[in-house]
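[Meeting: bench + compute handoff]

Bench side (C.D.) handed over the final construct sequence. Compute side (W.E.) agreed to return the predicted structure before the next meeting so the bench team could plan truncations. Sequence as handed over:
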Amino acid sequence: MRLAIATDAWDPQVNGVMRSLKETAAALPALGIEPHFVTPEGLPSLPLPTYPDIRVAIGAGPAVAERLDRLAPEAVHVATEGTIGHAARRWCLVHGLPFTTSYHTRYPEYVRARAPIPEAWTYAWLRRFHEAAARTLVPTETMRRELAAWGFANLAVWARGVDTTLFRPRPGIAFDYPRPLMLTVGRLAVEKNVEAFLSLDLSGTKVVVGDGPQRAELERRFPGAVFLGMKTGEALAEIYAAADVFVFTSRTDTYGNVMQEALASGVPVAAFPVPGPLDVLTEAGIGALDDDLAVAIRQALTLDGARCRAVAEGRTWAAAAAQFAAALAPFSRRERAA
């Protein structure tokens, strides 16, 4: 089956949406599905306000329609709600074809953190976008219940996996900083709540991996922390493996792939008891949740990394891809021709 995946999130962005789409796509051919991405690549774009590193494609409608016409897919998945996603959604509606969508980002909370716009307004806009889909895929059962309470329908869970080959315990990896080494990884933006971690009075070293609009401010306010910038691949995996505890600071993420990467690296997780951590840290002995993040960190430091690794080994991208594939809404070639 030829599948078109329309996404506004694409290179050079580095985020959980990109990782989820690429890892799932890599596992789909084994299920008889041939994925093709429809992205902003090659289109003019403008920087997103307050997020200059994220750009919005201009004139996406005709370009996306032309790409989909040429591809002639047998199923369409609209992964994001930006201009690419809207164009793919419109193409499906014009042709009378079913499609699926996915919900990755809690935009209502993110928007509210930046402007006095009621969350209900943004949820209403998102509900309208997704209501035309045969199914909307969400990362967790908690997120499914939350969106259902906001009036979203036809929701299905598409879980996330982790690359346990790249992210693994690496004995002998050492960083020349005072222990314990407390690591956080992610975009440095206000909604990620990183300052809740950096402001804690804890012995050891706070290490921050990532970039974003808040980086300069955080570096200025917290000179005692170590900011390593954006890291990927082996360099990122080695930093995970060197950590004593991973600190997940967000209260608004829908999932948190970075927690899975930490667990696969044999590193316990400390987080707030909110959606995301509540769904990832489901097994005993792999993380600590507390509204007092310092308490969670101290507790997580007592946990066994081998237990974290063992749990992560059961969370594969192949299993996540199977969930994704089961939720698709394929259509026949005759439907497409009509």
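W.E. noted at the follow-up: The longest helix spans residues 83-95. C.D. will use this when planning the next construct.
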